[in-house]
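Worked example

This section walks through a single chain of length 72. The input is the sequence exactly as stored; nothing has been trimmed or padded.
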Amino acid sequence: MPDPESVTCPICGKGTLVTIDFGEQQPASREVQTFTCGHEVESARLQTADAEKLDVERRTSEETAQPTDPEE
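Given that input, the structure is written out below as tokens.
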């Protein structure tokens, strides 16, 4: 995911990236980038298989939670 300060609004060129949201975890949900200037820009759908088109957080296996024991 790019540094938010380095991403400027593609509409006005003045605002910087505030948030990236998908709204829902559904395949048809679109990535929505919100900028400090108030503009919102829709991007790729979540169902996109091309990781280069999506700005998502990537984690290593060391950063994920341990599985829970169903007997506990």
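What to look for: The chain has a mean pLDDT of 78.
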